[in-house]
Amino acid sequence: MLHKGCKTSRVKKLDFNDVAEVYDLGRALPQVDGFSEWRLRLVEHFGGLSGQCLLDLGSGTGLFSAAIAEWFETRVVGVEPSSKMREVAAKTRKRGGIVYVGGRGEQIPLEDASCAAAWLSHVLHHLTDLARCAMELRRVVREGQPVVIRNILPGRTGGITLFHYFPGARQVVESSSPSLEAACSAFTKAGFELHSLQSVRQITAPDMRVFLKRVRVRADSSLAPLDDDQFAKGLRALIHDAKSDAGTAPIVDSMDMLVFH
User: Fold this and answer.
1) DSSP strand E in 82-122: where?
2) What is the pTM of this model?
3) Which of 43, 118, 177, 227 has a CA-to-CA distance to 256 between 20 and 30 Å?
4) How far is Cα 135 from Cα 191, in angstroms, rounded to an integer?
């Protein structure tokens, strides 16, 4: 189904091989302030895993693989389908204890019970079979251990600054991302129990001017289906606000953190 306002010829998915080299320019969080709240929230789930293996499913350019390995002294296997994203990760975030391998959530290339936990950041909406992915996570994550999901869930998009400027991007998320109910159903059928759902406030960019530069890269998958007119309209509004006094304030967004055991 087409999203309202999207021209048929422009409706498309983001090709991560095409944007791999510039992905961090468009999506990486500020190294200190942007990560601080996530580090605090993850202590409960990953804090006792020193020396153990953690799965970063949909690891992209290795942003969280490297951070989690450093924060909690874990070994990390980053599973990522895009070969170009893996190349960037291996080049820019190569360190002992981290390996990046090709694979998909529906067929994770790891042995049974080989991971002490799993982390998924902005992955749910890219899966072709959520139920199959949940079963695969149940297979590779050890009994009783956590699967932590960072995502934007439909019906919970009000705290995302990007969507204030690009309402069409909000429609993409609302119509194509798995709902909270769908995620819970898939994971409980796979043998997990819902542990918690929290809203996490993160600093996405230090100010509006930096945010504008990131948006221009168009590395967010929710922007890919928008036609050029929609994207240009959002940019004009962003440029206007970036020049105002409000443009000096940090961009703070609210993301969902869904945890299953």
Assistant:
1) 98-101, 117-121
2) 0.92
3) 227
4) 8
